[in-house]
Amino acid sequence: MTEQTTPVDDTRPAEDATSAFVPQPRSEPPTPAATEPAAPGFVVPPPPVAPPLVGEPQDPPVKVKKDRRVLRAVLRWTAATVVFAAVGASAAYGITRMERTDVPGLATEADGRWDYPAITKPPLPSGSPGPFAETNTAGVHSADLRQLLLPAPKGAKADASLRGDDGWLPTKTFLAQYAEKEDREAVGQFLTDYAVRHIAARGWTSTDGTRTRIYLLQFDTASVAEDLVTNELVHYDSPRYVIGGAVTAVRDEQFPERAQVDDITRYAYAEAKPYGPEQVREAYLSAGDTIALVVQSHKGTAPAVPFQQTVVLQSQLLD
């Protein structure tokens, strides 16, 4: 292997030692000659770099500038990420505060739910606790029972037979819904023995032909109402007394457990096949001093979704 040498230019005039140093443009270093491949296991060290002459101008610190540009870019992207994250978080919070149907592109397809008006609980008399407040040991609803009835959905036709006298329904009108005479007599006797105070009712026929009836029965205390429901009106897997239009009724297994409303005990049933010209669904609700009975019937099959919706909304009003 031979070494390459650079010829010396002897014709260049000598520099005056007393004159100021004038920097000359740096020439590109010669390309190193190709070297033979190193033996395995050895690393060829890089060629030594000569230190710059004193006073000789040096190339700009390219690496430092490059690092600074990278740093600035990182900072810009970091700032942008923080901004986008903040905006995204606020948008996500806004979405979680909206109803699903209020978010474009997320509206669910119609599942049979009815269009109920805005539902609000009636105000309580001044100083009166809610029915499930710790201080309300009797579980009494202080609000007017008639105002705790679920309003009819939009487009429904009201059932005038359930309006009663000034909103209070006669006991015999409530009992008329039971199919058998013996059942009407038995339930009527229970209402006398347990001293029902008031009965309020509301009914309607919706645009799809489903007939709905809701009854609220108020007693002196929550313990009285609960005892009547659990011991006299329902079994776990069926109601004790059959509603008119139904042949048999069994526990409604389609009713989702996650729809349970706190403090409300629900017993939901559906007429089992084979049923007659129409199917009947019913639910008893034990809510403090009040028992609610929700009944829906429809020619053919009574849809499950509006029944569940109606029961849950009525439960929320009583909670």
Largest sheet: 7 strands, antiparallel
- Report the β-strand fraction as a percent range: 15-25%
Helical percentage? 25-40%
As a whole number of angstroms, the C-alpha radius of gyration is 43 Å
Distance between the termini: 99 Å
Q: What strand line-up does the widest sheet have? A: 1-2-3-7-6-5-4
Q: List segments where confidence is low: pLDDT < 50 over at least 5 consecutive residues.
A: 1-45, 53-57, 62-68, 78-109
Count the E strands: 7
Instruction: Output the helix-strand order.
Output: HEHHEEHEEEEH
Average residue pLDDT: 77
Number of helices: 5
Shape estimate: globular
What structural category characterises the helix and strand content?
Answer: alpha+beta
What does this protein structure show overall?
By secondary structure, this protein is an alpha+beta fold. The protein has a seven-stranded antiparallel sheet, with helices on both faces. A hairpin with a 2-residue loop joins strand 6 and strand 7. The radius of gyration is 43 Å and the shape is globular. The termini are far apart. The N terminus is likely disordered.
